[in-house]
Task: structure prediction
Amino acid sequence: MSIILPMEGVEIFGVTLVGVSTTIGVKLLLTTALVVVVTILRRLVIALARLALGGDVADSRRFWTRQGVQVVAAVVMLLGLISIWVTPETDVTTGVGLISAGLAFALRQVIISLAAYFVILRGDTFTVGDRITLGGVRGDVVRLGFLKTTIMEMGQPPSVAATDPAVWVNSRQYTGRLVTVTNGVIFSEPVYNYTRDFPYLWEEITVPISYQADRAEAESILLEAARAHAVIDDPTAERALAFMRARYALSDASLGPEVFWRITDNWLELSVRFLVGHRGVRVVKDQMTRDILRAFDAAGISIASATYEVVGLPELRISRD
Result:
């Protein structure tokens, strides 16, 4: 069944609208109906999926279901618009060429971000729930859209806390700000992923002590604190490291705690290196610091600080009239 409409002009209050015909009017109505129906169906399917799957927003099943529904809705919308506006009698070669060139120039960033979206979906870059650094923003991915990624920002360690934009939380914990980053950033900047493949981090605590202190006892205290709070003899961590070695050209790495010494002009610097999970790092380091200070006090070991030693005085003469 086909409907053929005459190419008659449209008049409003006796004025003929240039370039508008009954056929174009019907196509506009069909386009509006298509957009409304697809939008309603998309929201209905997402709502039913949310009820069926349950869980929270960060549930991977809910995320991938939502992304799948959105992709299908976008494809249906595109095919519907082509079917409505492009007919066998339409000469669209020139028009399509001009429109494509204009869209490619005007929507360059949009096209790049949309392409990056599909790269993110099919690749191993990141997904919802991952802790990443993207576009200079550190935090957890809470939403992934066609064009933008939303990140719950977290603080930064003191060594990089002065970077722009500045944050007021001196550790990897939430600041409370939601930051939106365009997906196209993955093509121009590195993406740091704290979660994917190996959800662990190597951390360090550095303690300066004087050269007169009991160095062996200090090292023993640092190792004991690491063994009490860090990841030690964890089969999950060992399997994750084995997976990394099988997938990437990764050299051997130690999962156990180690202490490294460094000589400076003022003190001996002891750095304990240990493995922790990618979340809760601040809590682990806080507990270790408390244990280290208590043990140092009990052993009579003090934290070194910059001091000055006077080794000589000039001759002083006093004369009286």
